[in-house]
Amino acid sequence: KGFKGLVTQLVRNFLHTSHNPERITLYACGPRLMLKEAAKISNSLDVNCFGLLEEYMACGTGACFGCVVSTRSGFKRVCKDGPVFDLKLIQW
Q1: What are φ and ψ of residue 47, in 5° steps?
Q2: What is the phi/psi pair of residue 61, to 5°?
Q3: Each residue of 31-46: pLDDT tens digit?
Q4: Bridge partners of 77?
């Protein structure tokens, strides 16, 4: 019973059958590859998509820069600038 496959396949199917995809905002939390696929789907359909990034945080205060991610506007610290980011801005 149910759906067998990746959750991103369900999201893609839902967005393709939605009447107003531009009014939808996706929120995601999970493995990096899933977030990357969610960003790809949302970019292709012009849907807002925010994700909770999980990176190793050595200090948790932003001093060590151990948790940086590359974005379109430079490097951002997950512990201080996030952990929630607009996934369209992340450089995968």
Answers
A1: -110, 140
A2: -120, -5
A3: 999 999 999 999 988 8
A4: 68
> How far is Cα 91 from Cα 71, in angstroms, rounded to an integer?
5
Q: For 71-92, what is each residue's pLDDT tens digit? A: 999 999 999 999 999 999 999 9
Question: What span, in angstroms and rounded, lies between the C-alpha atoms of 92 and 15?
Answer: 22
Calpha distance 62→44 (Å, rounded): 33
Q: What is the pTM of this model?
A: 0.83
- One-letter amino acid at 58 equals A
Other CB atoms closer than 10 Å to residue 45's CB: what's the count?
17
Q: Give 73-80's long-range contacts (Cβ < 8 A, gap of 24+).
A: 78/53, 78/54
Rounded to the nearest angstrom, the gap between the alpha carbon of residue 76 and the centroid of all alpha carbons in its chain is: 14
CA distance 58 to 78: 11
